Amino acid sequence: MITVDEYKKAVEGDFDAIEKICLATWEPLYRFIYYKVQNQEEAEDITQETYVKTLKYFQKNKLLQENFLAFMKIVSLNLIRDRWRQKKHRGVLVNFQEINPKEVACGDKQDDIAQRLVLESALAKLSQEQQIILDLRIIKGYSAAETAKVLGKTEGAVRTAQYRALKALAQILDDKAQKTDRPKEGED
User: pTM for this one?
Assistant: First the structure.
């Protein structure tokens, strides 16, 4: 536990007191931040920024908080929100070095059409109920509850039927891929 004297020394710039506070609070603070951002590097950066901002605040205002860790968590939440706002305003980064302009411009429509035909023929081999469930859940984006209501089934039955339909569809597509990959008789 950190004493009030150590906080006062830290506010005055005593490095030993600052180090003691950091050692006592870094792990719970880091865990809190990591839970929020789910990224190690970002959590480490925000943890460091939190200490810097908190110490600057205390040195400027000469105020002591009763619950130092809670105050630091609030500071870290504000930093996280600031980062989220900055990311939102920046938009999506596109690496133009990785994009092949010929591929993008020429986009092979024949392959897309062929894939769609293969998928449609595979879907046609499923039972009508499986087709309906996949249509509602995947194509139209219905929730399991909404699909269950439409079909008069339980949510569990819908999820099970969807799993089985996807498994059957994958098997049909695998079988079709194996047939097309095999060399025909007389070819080597």
Answer: 0.47
Joined together, the tokens standing for residue 139 give 């194509």
Query: Would you state the structure tokens that stand for residue 171, as one six-digit string?
Result: 């098997």
Question: What is the set of domains in the chain, with CATH numbers?
Answer: 4-90 (1.10.1740.10), 108-181 (1.10.10.10)
pLDDT 10s digits, 9-31: 887 888 888 888 889 899 999 99
Q: DSSP string covering the chain, please?
A: ---HHHHHHHHTT-HHHHHHHHHHHHHHHHHHHHHHH--HHHHHHHHHHHHHHHHHHHHHH----SSHHHHHHHHHHHHHHHHHHHHHHH-----TTS--HHHHHH--HHHHHHHHHHHHHHHHTS-HHHHHHHIIIIIS---HHHHHHHHT--HHHHHHHHHHHHHHHHHHHHHHHHHHHSPPTT--
Tell me the one-letter amino acid at 26: W
Closest of 53, 34, 55, 32 to residue 43, by C-alpha: 34
